[in-house]
Amino acid sequence: MLKNFRTSSIARLRLISLIEGLSLILLVLIAVPLKYYFGDDSWVKSIGPVHGGLFVLFVVMALWEAFSKKWSIGTTAMVILIASFIPFGCFYVDSKILKAMDQGKD
């Protein structure tokens, strides 16, 4: 995936998907427990906006790919967008859809 990062827009979308998913893991497994069990909300205040920005970037990039590559709005684009709203759906999208597209080159 990383070797195609500079040349493949799908590889870039996969990378943003991975980073967005990892930011959610940090938020859910570290920041939120620290906030509610130890009263320290500094991690949520730091990671929360980063995760939100990555999520918006992923959605915008997915929409951009959908329109530029003329994906079927009823299937591919819709599955990616719906999965992006499901926690950890980005990992599903990467493994089932984007990885196959990246291997086939865009």
Spatial gap, N to C terminus: 13 Å
Stretches with pLDDT under 50, minimum 5 residues: none
Q: Class by helix and strand content?
A: mainly alpha
Q: Total strand count, please?
A: 0
How many domain modules?
1
**Could you spell the SSE succession in H and E letters?**
HHHH
In percent, how much strand structure appears in the residues?
A: under 5%
Compute the average pLDDT. 85
Brief descriptors of the model:
single chain, 106 residues, mainly alpha, 4 helices, 0% strand, elongated
What does this protein structure show overall?
This protein is mostly helical and 106 residues long. It has one domain. It is 79% helix and 0% strand. It is built from 4 helices and no strands.
List the helices and strands and how they pair.
Blueprint: H1 9-38, H2 42-68, H3 73-84, H4 89-103
Helix pairs in contact: 1-2, 1-4, 2-3, 3-4
In short:
The chain has 106 residues and is mainly α. Helix content is 79%, strand content 0%. It is elongated and about 50 Å long.
